[in-house]
Amino acid sequence: MRFTGIQPIFFVLLISIITYLISFESRTYFDDDAWLGEHVYSLHKTGYIKSELFAPLLDYDDQLFVYHKLFTYATLPLVSLFGFGLIKIRFIVLICLIGITALIVGKRKLFRLHKNQSVLVVAFILVNPIILKYGTIYRPELMVTLMGLISYTQLNKYLIKGGGLRLTLASFFAGLATLAHLNGIIFIASGAILLFFKKRFYKGVIFGLLSMLIASFYFTDIIIYDAWDTFLNQFSNDPALFHKKKSVWANLSYLIDDHKRWFHNLWISIFSTFSLVILFFYIRFRRGNIRLNSLLIYTLLLGFFLALLSPLNTEKYTIYLIPFICILWIRVLPHIQQLWPIKMVLIAYFIVGIVQSILLTVQRHSSFSSIEHILTSETRIIAPMEVLFENQKSTSFLLGTHYFLYFHNKYNKIEGSLSLSTLTSEARKWNIDHIILRRNEYAKIRNLTVRSNHYKKTETDDFIIFSKTN
């Protein structure tokens, strides 16, 4: 069944693309841009990865072994050709988003979609608020999704036509998804279990083994540098997961709490609610007879393993499932699109997506003009992480305020929030010339009345600065 009235969909798609491209350069910095961007900056500059932004952590300033390896190395050619910069490294995310949409349109027959239906899927994806948000942040979720989607297309081809090459390619790309981010292991697990569901038990084992073989390249630099102790220390105490318990029971609790991921905030809640509404009407229309095809089984498996294996119920990891869910929507809509509640929810979804895109467009980068005299001198500073994109080679050392505000006390088992005396004491230890804090960061620090004999306080409109006096 073909959709009618496709012209409005093309219009919404065009508006979304234009808004996205306009906002690509202007969207504000996110912490992850600098956090992960420093990895490729260090790789390009030194030939290996270390972190000054988190230098006090786990020998990060010596060498870092826990990072998104395929994602980082895939960005390196862009940095080598065009230099390091925020837009330049974000471009890899844009490439992956284009790849996802091109794959859906190009392989539409494999998904049982007509041309107009595939365009509608792309429109659903591009106006999704989570995709719009993370479509310009330097993070690997869209690369993981692209690799996982390619893996599924090859796996589905294998289930339909057979062929060892298709199974091998499916395994290869599931392994690449894991190399892009360790969460990509959900594509290995889902692919193997899907084959078990289809009574291809032996092939499921082969798929799993081949995928894990590709994923094992994650350990290449660890083997080269014989750094297993450092790796295990960094992995088990990773700052993003430091506060999470690690046990079988903890993983089960993550599974129980995973609904919070899908209702984490307004934007993802709208997407999740729309999915539930469509499912409700589909079950009602079909009177409970739901045919569990490969795509539906695979999508449910992805959701299950994401809940089981990912300790963070953050919205960004829903990106892995969004293209699959949007394709399922289009499979369902021809049967229920005449129902007025579906039309209303559909219109609301697109309106919210466009509004979110516009809101992201009006955000702007912070201005560092008031501290330019510090950033252009050969100094050692503690500053917001995004200063990495402003100074690059200007300062000799940049330690991020993010570490001190969110991790220093936790790792050192200090109760309460960061104190000014602790910050200045650590600054002296690292021979820091200037401490630069945003006003909202400064407000998070306690004991502000304590004065340091070693750092003098000055202020600008946007920053509080402590400069070394001796």
What is the structure about, briefly put?
The protein is mainly alpha-helical.
The largest sheet is:
5 strands, mixed
Radius of gyration: 24 Å
Unreliable segments (pLDDT under 50, ≥5 consecutive)?
Answer: none
Distance between the termini: 77 Å
- Helical content stands at 55-70%
Structural class: mainly alpha
Number of E strands? 5
The helix/strand series, from N terminus to C terminus, equals: HHHHHHHHHHHHHHHHHHHEHEHHEHEE
Which term fits the overall shape?
Answer: globular
Measured by DSSP, the beta-strand proportion falls in 5-15%
Overall mean pLDDT stands at 85
The number of helical segments is 23
Numbering strands along the chain, what is their spatial order in the largest sheet?
Answer: 2-1-3-5-4
Task: Tell me what you see in this structure.
The chain has 470 residues and is mainly alpha-helical. It contains 23 helices and five strands. The chain has a five-stranded mixed sheet. Helix 4 (86-106) runs parallel beside helix 7 (141-161). The protein starts with 5 loop residues before the first helix and ends with a strand. The mean pLDDT is 85.
Task: Please write out the topology.
Elements: H1 6-26, H2 31-46, H3 69-82, H4 86-106, H5 115-126, H6 129-134, H7 141-161, H8 164-180, H9 185-197, H10 201-215, H11 220-224, H12 228-236, H13 248-256, H14 259-262, H15 266-286, H16 294-309, H17 322-336, H18 340-361, H19 372-375, E1 380-383, H20 388-391, E2 397-400, H21 401-411, H22 420-429, E3 434-438, H23 439-442, E4 455-459, E5 463-468
Parallel strand pairs: 1-2, 1-3
Antiparallel strand pairs: 3-5, 4-5
Helix pairs in contact: 1-5, 1-18, 2-3, 3-4, 3-8, 4-7, 5-17, 7-8, 8-9, 8-10, 9-10, 9-16, 13-16, 15-17, 15-18
